[in-house]
Amino acid sequence: MFGLVFEARSTTDGRIAGSVLLLSPSSGVGVFVPPFWWSVEGKASCSSKAISTHPVVTTSRVTVNAKTLVAVATRDINLKWGVNILMMICAMNPEGHSTMYSKQLTAEIQAAAANLDENQWPEKVLEVVRKGRLFGDSIPTRFGGLGSSPLDRVRIYEALARGHMSTALILTQHDGACELLADCDNEDLASTLLPRLADGSALATVGISQLTTSRQGGVPAMAAQPDGGDYLMTGVMPWVTSARKADYIVSGAVLPDAKQFLACIDTNSEGLYVDEPIELLALTGSLTSAVRCEGLRVSRAALMRGPMEKALGRRSTVKSLTVSSCGIGMAGALLDMCQMLTSNTPSLADLVNGPIVQHYDRVRRRFYSVADSLNDPAAEIPAMDVRVEINDLVSRLALSLMNVLKGSGYVASHPGQRLVREAMFFLVWSAPVSVQANTLSRMWRSPG
Question: Would the pLDDT of 7 be above 50?
Fold first, then answer.
């Protein structure tokens, strides 16, 4: 049997919607298919093409109760029993399906990343992401994406980061670009690019740190001059993940009147130059580079938003918790290794499985209590508090792992020291001064 239990949510037009996940107990693989909807008229609908063409699925049907959407796909078993069983599971444990899928996704990612050089582009791992259609998780269904809920995306980021942090970083940057495209003022551009970005046949990334946290003050890092109906961009995008592999970069520039615009740049454009990948403390396999523009022409057709005072003033609700989502995944990876390495040393195992696990569980529960409110537009998201708490957790777990590893953790070839180095990324990723100050304050606050 292949099946899913998923909590449905009301959409603004009165429908109940939820991303659908087919789980295969025999192979341990989860596969996303397009969402099912239950309309206000009571008519169920779905994209049957994705199901009928799936190699292991032959039939499907949908049933809905008051709060739950249940999708079941079967092969030669009684459909009714399958539906009843899944509905029962959902009633008893509404989070169970998400936990099960997250663990399976992490395991698939870890298996694909085994023996991968950390400085190497993770193509094999990204193929798992592609087959799971996760490149379309942030893209609305009208553009061929999954239209995943904010909470589902948070879970995906956690699972990916727990399995392979470079892959999680690559997907978050792809998703960031896709979100901005889906919400841009250029419908033709979005309709042209997003279907390819959703199915993974094209890759996008963002080069916007020059408008947010990097090189602020003084002369703009990326400036633009009007030229007829176009703009000419000159300057640098300091941090661009996937720069040498991406097909499109969503970037922004500042005009002489201080107004900004966002544009989608084809990486084959004349006047665009990608530097050698930066030799980072960790995550070098993400191929993060500086990207330079020298009179790069941006046509009106590539313009996404602006010119306006703040081109990035409108962002996705998930954006506030993206780094924290990956952080809680990173914390899980560190904890997993701590538990594995101390399993035969009772005195250490008691500490890891006692106060350390308890603290991790408290932070993770708080994180998801906040993430649960992402679907409520009126909710105030304490993103700063959550980010600082997770920064603290990841730092503590990294030091704990190094303590457990002892001398072997100081050997460059040990996977544990790679996790410790990757953990430090959360102290610098999208870290404005407010995050820096609050992280330092929490680290050095008086005991008790």
Answer: no
